[in-house]
Amino acid sequence: SILFQRGIYEPEDFKMVKKYNINLLITNDDRVQAYISEIMEQVKKWIGSQSIKKLVLVILSKESREVMERWEFIIQIQKDLENEHIREKSESEIQNEIQAILRQLTASVSFLPILEEPCTFNVLAYTDKNAEVPQTWIDSDPKYIKFNQEQVKLRSFSTPYHSVDAMVSYRYRDY
Known about the structure:
By secondary structure, the protein is an alpha+beta fold. The protein contains three helices and seven strands. It starts with a helix and ends with a strand. InterPro entries: HORMA_dom (IPR003511), HORMA_dom_sf (IPR036570), Mad2-like (IPR045091). It is found in: Nucleus.
């Protein structure tokens, strides 16, 4: 949805699917789908092993490689569920929270600056130092925005097992 909203690919490169009881736009590009699927499969493993801390979608200029936006999703996993008194949430409550985040992602286009140059994206995963990482993956710098940065905290959502806090950082231009 972020890739569509931010114009990373052409609108005709997306199709509508229904997930979490809401319509989402996902890419038709097989390579992008495979890349995202590989990442999400690994994220599921890291959630299962309680070793993921944060997932970051970085949007950067194709030409200069300058970071334009950083979409951060901070994942906090309940370490010891047996000793915690956690209120169980219904599936519909969790779906409503996810829907609210997705709506906020869509609405964020109204305050984010227009990306005036062709951009691409990268995904960064922050894990415990002992986490198993696929051999084909490489370490990266954090891809921070170097100048003129603004940050907006987005909604969070939680289940009895984990919570996700979201934030977008973006580069604004001084004209």
